[in-house]
TrEMBL record:
Name this polypeptide is given: Insertion element IS402-like domain-containing protein
Coiled coil location: none
Record-linked InterPro entries: IS402-like_dom (IPR025161), Transposase_6_like (IPR052909)
Domain Insertion element IS402-like: 10-85
Species whose genome carries this gene: Planomonospora alba
Length: 118
């Protein structure tokens, strides 16, 4: 894995992700195309999430079509992979004091204020 993809999905994240991702389905008849690598797909999803690019604009460096990446994102979302991963990160990294809580902030836009209130 090249440095660009390694930066998107470092080994520590990949190890945590492997604990929550469901096993890949197997075709009883075999054959078909080889399944795209989960780590490459995860890197593509992280890329979309962090850059804001559209699925259709994914660069070919990820080795999978945007449809494959989007489909895997939907499958993993249905399996609650993101919630499970978030929980592990909070539980394990937070317990070890490895989370930087100083970077967490409340978005002022989400707070309601009464116009002309006291």
């Amino acid at each position: 894995m090249d440095a660009f993809l390694q930066r998107l999905v470092p080994d520590e994240l990949w190890e945590l992700f492997q604990r929550v991702v469901p096993p890949a389905p197997t075709r009883p008849q075999g054959g078909g195309r080889r399944r795209a690598d989960d780590r490459m797909i995860l890197a593509a999803i992280v890329y979309v999430a962090t850059t804001g690019c559209a699925w259709r604009q994914l660069p070919p460096v990820f080795g999978a079509s945007w449809q494959t990446v989007n489909r895997r994102f939907a499958e993993w979302s249905a399996a609650r992979v993101w919630a499970k991963l978030y929980r592990i990160i909070l539980d394990e990294l937070g317990a070890r004091g490895e989370l930087d809580w100083s970077r967490c902030a409340i978005d002022a836009v989400s707070l309601r204020a009464v116009k002309g209130g006291s």
